[in-house]
């Protein structure tokens, strides 16, 4: 699962990415061993079953802090996008291409209105940041349209002769973007698209791609620089149809650095922090922390963690499940208790989990056991948030 961090230049996108990917806890041997320069690991929080079950867990692919499981998710940061990116402007095609595998986007917007559509500083401010959201949605839809159009004429003629379904043709073109045929069928319900693919024009394809983007690449709007943003800007962004969260990325980054430096105690996602006993702050540090504490009261925190968790648990609707090998002790073959936490789409089945753990385990699936109830369940058992599941497979 991958979340793309997108936006125009100079909105605090790199700051948001840096703040989000500073690990709040040390996690050994997590499942992302090779991280490219434009990728990083953030963390989301979910209740760990250890407290409910009355056991001490020994996590492997995640961490547990006071009964809260800290689960890594992969973030992808691309350079700032500008209008015309879909047509190659500003190396936009390369940056958009980097986003192919993203399951959702966090669109970082300068809510203060002090940067124009190109990301240039405006002396007087007053720029409408909602234009950034509109432009980015359009860029992604145009990019999808061009991917569909590439070689479409030949494919459309063949499909017309063979009677292929339109959604199958489109899915073939968008397969590299992790777009499913089901998502395309849903999008087609909202667009008047000819059943004859040779008759598809630019306008109808753009309308279709706009709907495909909404279902296949949903967005959270990070209303960044909220502390210096006019209320009307935040209100307007909040009404644009996507989940919108006021964010203070600079504050989040500063707090994590201060915590790492031993000055404060701060839990990402919290609305407060405390200066550690015995720490002496200089005037600059004290004033900065007072300012940050005051602004965090206004917004209930910095919003960075909220963005991540709204994206993962909200718009992507993922749940946490815990595969084990011993349903009585809740352990894996190494004796680790509740070792792994997997984030899977709501509605996933026991067999889906088996394939997520390992392809061979899915192929050899016989049944599963709900470790909480000790009941045997079948392949079509629908997983619930917090389930602890043993997979039984042929050897």
Protein model, in words:
The structure is a single chain. The chain has 395 residues and is an alpha/beta fold. Among the domains are: 2-138 and 219-247 and 300-311, P-loop containing nucleotide triphosphate hydrolases (Rossmann fold), CATH 3.40.50; 317-393, Beta-grasp domain (Ubiquitin-like (UB roll)), CATH 3.10.20. 36% of the residues lie in helices and 19% in strands. The chain has 14 helices and 14 strands. It has helices at 13-20, 50-53, 92-97, 130-149, 152-162, 166-174, 181-188, 202-216, 231-238, 249-260, 283-299, 304-315, 350-357, 359-363, and strands at residues 2-6, 39-47, 63-65, 68-77, 104-110, 219-224, 243-247, 264-265, 274-275, 318-324, 342-345, 365-370, 375-377, 388-393. The strands form 3 sheets. Strands 1, 2, 3, 4, 5, 6 and 7 form a 7-stranded mixed sheet that branches. Mean pLDDT is 90; it is low at 27-37.
Which terms would index this structure?
395 residues, alpha/beta, Rossmann fold, Ubiquitin-like (UB roll), 7-stranded mixed β-sheet, 5-stranded mixed β-sheet, 14 helices, 36% helix
């Amino acid at each position: 699962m991958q979340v793309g961090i997108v936006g125009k230049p100079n909105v605090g996108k790199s700051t948001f990415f840096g703040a989000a990917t500073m690990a709040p806890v040390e996690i050994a041997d997590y499942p992302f061993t090779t991280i490219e320069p434009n990728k990083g690991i953030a963390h989301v929080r979910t209740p760990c079953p250890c407290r409910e079950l009355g056991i001490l867990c020994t996590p492997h692919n995640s961490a547990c802090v006071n009964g809260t499981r800290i689960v890594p998710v992969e973030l992808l940061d691309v350079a700032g996008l500008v209008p015309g990116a879909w047509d190659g402007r500003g190396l936009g095609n390369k940056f958009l291409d980097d986003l192919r595998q993203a399951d959702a986007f966090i669109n970082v917007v300068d809510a203060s209105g002090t940067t124009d559509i190109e990301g240039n500083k405006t002396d007087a401010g007053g720029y409408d940041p909602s234009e950034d959201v509109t432009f980015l949605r359009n860029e992604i839809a145009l990019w999808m349209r061009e991917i569909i159009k590439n070689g479409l004429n030949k494919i459309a003629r063949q499909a017309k002769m063979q009677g292929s379904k339109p959604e199958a043709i489109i899915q073939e073109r968008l397969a590299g973007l992790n777009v499913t045929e089901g998502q395309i069928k849903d999008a087609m319900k909202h667009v008047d698209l000819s059943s004859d693919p040779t008759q598809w024009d630019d306008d109808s394809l753009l309308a279709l791609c706009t709907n495909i983007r909404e279902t296949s690449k949903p967005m959270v709007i990070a209303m960044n620089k909220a502390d210096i943003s006019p209320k009307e800007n935040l209100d307007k962004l909040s009404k644009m149809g996507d989940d919108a969260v006021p964010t203070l990325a600079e504050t989040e980054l500063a707090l994590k650095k201060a915590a790492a430096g031993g000055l404060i105690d701060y839990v990402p996602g919290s609305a407060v922090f405390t200066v550690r006993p015995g720490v002496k702050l200089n005037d600059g540090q004290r004033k900065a922390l007072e300012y940050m504490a005051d602004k965090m009261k206004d917004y209930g925190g910095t919003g960075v963690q909220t963005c991540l968790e709204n994206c993962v648990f909200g718009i992507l609707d993922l749940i946490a499940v815990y595969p084990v090998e011993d349903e009585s002790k809740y352990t894996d073959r190494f004796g680790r208790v509740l070792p792994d936490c997997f984030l899977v789409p709501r509605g996933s089945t026991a067999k889906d989990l088996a394939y997520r753990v390992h392809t061979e385990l899915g192929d050899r699936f016989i049944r599963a056991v709900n470790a909480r109830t000790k009941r045997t369940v079948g392949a079509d058992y629908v997983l619930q948030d917090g389930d602890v599941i043993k997979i039984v497979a042929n050897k």
